[in-house]
Amino acid sequence: GGHPDTAAGAKCTIVIAPLLQGRIPAICTDCTTVTTPGETVDVVVTDYGIAINPRRQDIIDAVKDTDLPICTIEELRDTAYKMVGKPDPVQFCDRIVGIIEARDGSVMDVVRQVKKAEF
User: Measuring CA to CA, how many Å separate 25 from each of 5, 71, 81, 103, 107?
Assistant: First the structure.
């Protein structure tokens, strides 16, 4: 397995990432490929704040009286968009180049070939 298996089997899954990777937001409204379902992620830690999955009230309660920069995932997204703008959607071809399988072997998502940029 990999991170999907670890996330699903862990008591607390924490994803750590810079909010921006170059000029690309790590937190966006829409993602292009699901590899780890969001419901298995408990906490996202970035250099601009920490978002806790609302389903994890126990974690929210544990940090409520701390000075940690707690915010919502939407606030992290909005911070990224304010800094670099909302990214243009990626354009894809119909050709499937990869299949993302869930832990049970079902198809969770597919990866499509990216269209060549036109300038």
Answer: 25, 16, 7, 27, 26
**Which value, in Å, is the radius of gyration of the alpha carbons in the chain?**
16
pLDDT of 69 higher than 90: yes
The pTM of this model reads 0.84
46: burial class by Cβ within 10 Å (0-12, 13-18, 19+)?
Answer: buried
Tell me if 73 sits within 8 A of 66, measured CB to CB.
no
> For the segment 30-62, what is each residue's pLDDT rounded down to a tens digit?
888 888 888 889 999 999 999 999 999 999 999
Pull the structure tokens for residue 12.
């607390």
Is the CA virtual torsion 74, 90, 5, 45 positive or negative? negative
What are 71's strand-pairing partners?
A: 51
